[in-house]
Design a protein that fits this description.
The protein is mainly α. The chain contains seven helices and two strands. Pfam families: MarR_2 (PF12802). One of its GO terms (biological process) is response to stress. It comes from Candidatus Aeolococcus gillhamiae.
């Protein structure tokens, strides 16, 4: 919620911006798949991010019919600024752990994500201030 307010964007917009920060270039369909939203909603999200100057659309160099969305420098900078406090807190918590302990925590979280039922992942995602991708498959429309 704090990051959303700092960036002046909505929850889906923030999730898409996070995806672009991690993934680089994606199509609106990729964003829809990753966030389990409709392609129409993904297009509206990309429109809002582009209007805010956080993302840009460009034709794929190999297939001019394919449009790729990427984060702008402004988008990357603002995203980093919005999450700086959270990253500092995570660093502070993690700094007390050894490499082996951190590896154990990561393995635990990855395993938890693997076995967690889809409906639980969606509940957890809905309750978080920053949404996380909960499915790689496209939701029925």
């Amino acid at each position: 919620m704090v990051a959303q307010a700092a960036l002046g964007i909505g929850r889906s917009d923030l999730a898409a911006l996070e995806l672009l920060t991690i993934s680089g270039k994606l199509t609106a369909g990729d964003i829809a798949d990753q966030l389990s939203i409709s392609t129409g909603t993904a297009t509206a999200v990309v429109d809002r991010l582009a209007e805010a100057g956080y993302a840009v659309r460009n034709a794929d160099a190999h297939d001019r019919r394919r449009i790729l969305v990427s984060i702008t420098q402004k988008g990357r900078r603002r995203f980093q600024e919005a999450f700086q406090q959270r990253w500092q807190w995570l660093h502070e918590v993690a700094s007390d752990l050894s490499s082996d302990e951190l590896a154990t925590v990561v393995r635990f979280l990855l395993r938890l994500h693997e076995i967690m039922p889809e409906e639980w992942r969606q509940e957890v995602s809905a309750s978080l201030p920053t949404p996380i991708p909960v499915s790689r498959g496209r939701r029925s429309r």
